[in-house]
Amino acid sequence: MSDSKVFGEIPGFPIGSTFRNRGEASQAWVHRPPRQGISGNRRDGANSIVVSGGYADDEDLGSEIIYTGAGGNDPRTKRQIADQSLDQPGNAELVTSQLQGLPVRVLRGAGGDPNFSPKSGFRYDGLFRVSDHWSQIGRDGFRIWRFRLEALSIEETQGWRPELPEGTPVPKRLRSMVTRVVRSTEVSNSVKRMYSDSCQICGVVLNVPGRTISEGAHIRGLGRPHFGPDTPGNILCLCPNHHTLLDSGGIYITDQLEVRSMHHDALTSLKVAPGHILDADHLRYHREIFGFEDPRL
Predict the structure, then answer these.
(1) How far is 119 from 148, CA to CA, in rounded Å?
(2) Vertex 265, ends 264 and 270: CA angle to 5°?
(3) In principle, which of 8, 195, 239, 273 could form an S-S bond with 160, CB 3.0–4.6 Å?
(4) Higher per-residue confidence, 78 vs 280
(5) pLDDT score of 176 more than 70
(6) Which residues are within 8 A (CB) of 274 and not within 5 positions of it... i.e. 6 or more apart?
(7) CATH for 3-157, among 1.10.3470.10, 2.40.128.270, 2.30.280.10, 3.40.50.300?
(8) Within the chain, which residue ranges are assigned CATH 2.30.280.10?
(9) Where are the beta strands (DSSP E) in 121-233?
(10) In the predicted model, is pLDDT for residue 178 greater than 80?
């Protein structure tokens, strides 16, 4: 079986296992590529990464890592010399892992943040989930893609065991993880009531026994690093499909309230109820973090 399909813990190498170099980590299957920082493929997702100070914009906070995607980096100076693309090998893999809720092994190297990195060699620090991704202009003036990874608890890691390289065993049970949090606040509930749970993009109303349902979608995400407000001007009433597309950069909304695809095709006009005033700054921010608008221009 391809090494790119081995997800979860590697038997015999618990958290804290150390390796003198990348070659030893590769032989142990903890991180197979001898050079690349991201292991996996676009279809199956990323199964491991290395955090070792290779990119100037990386932020290691211990149980949370803001990881810079692949591409555009000068390995000699560790500085960015070109824009990154979400389609580049490595970046697409991390998006797949986020959308499918797949665990990512994290290997820290001595070149990383001294507060959380080994003094020499490399150390396996457990399974993380990819909880978010966005783009921004990095400190060197080029567009970079960033990925938030959050450490899984011991309980969450239980049940995640890799498929062995030999054979094709079919697991009887697969542990799943929630990768997108749908926040329900009084503000979002009020917005949903304005539209009677009708999606502002497609108009679909989902009926379940006893009620209708919809999701309150924040245009600019709450919390770090987006710090979006929980206000009506930052919330849309959407069906789960269009909420996922918005959160993942599959669609965006222009200042003229046109809904466009990631390929910039005009899909429809956003339905906006009287009294629901959307903040154009949040719409612009969403376009910028997914690369549909360049703040440098």
Answers:
(1) 24
(2) 95
(3) 8
(4) 280
(5) no
(6) none
(7) 2.30.280.10
(8) 3-157
(9) 122-137, 143-151, 206-208, 211-213, 215-218
(10) no
CA 157 → CA 62, 129, 233, distances in Å?
A: 17, 10, 38
Cα separation, 41 vs 39, in Å, equals 7
Q: What is the reported pTM?
A: 0.81
What are the C-alpha distances in Å from 146 to residues 82, 217, 218?
A: 15, 21, 19
**What would the two tokens of residue 95 be?**
């998006």
Q: What integer pLDDT is reported at residue 297 of this predicted model?
A: 84
Enter the tokens of residue 123: 């150390």
Whole-angstrom distance, CA of residue 22 vs CA of residue 254: 45
Residue 158's pLDDT band (cuts 50, 70, 90) = low
Of the pLDDT bands very low, low, confident and very high (cuts 50, 70, 90), residue 4 is low
Q: How far apart are CA 90 and CA 125, in angstroms?
A: 20
* Residue found under tokens 């499918």: 100
- Pairing between β-strand 211-213 and β-strand 235-238 as defined by DSSP bridges: unpaired
* C-alpha distances out from residue 174 to 102, 126, 179, 184, 282, Å: 11, 19, 15, 28, 37
Residue among 147, 19, 160 nearest 102 (CA): 160
Check if the beta carbon of residue 252 is closer than 8 Å to that of residue 104.
Answer: no
Token pair listed for 16? 């804290």
- State the average pLDDT for the chain: 90
Angle (nearest 5°) at CA 122 between 119 and 124: 115
235 within 8 A of 218, measured Cβ to Cβ = yes
Per the listing, tokens 């070659």 go with 23
pLDDT at 156: 77
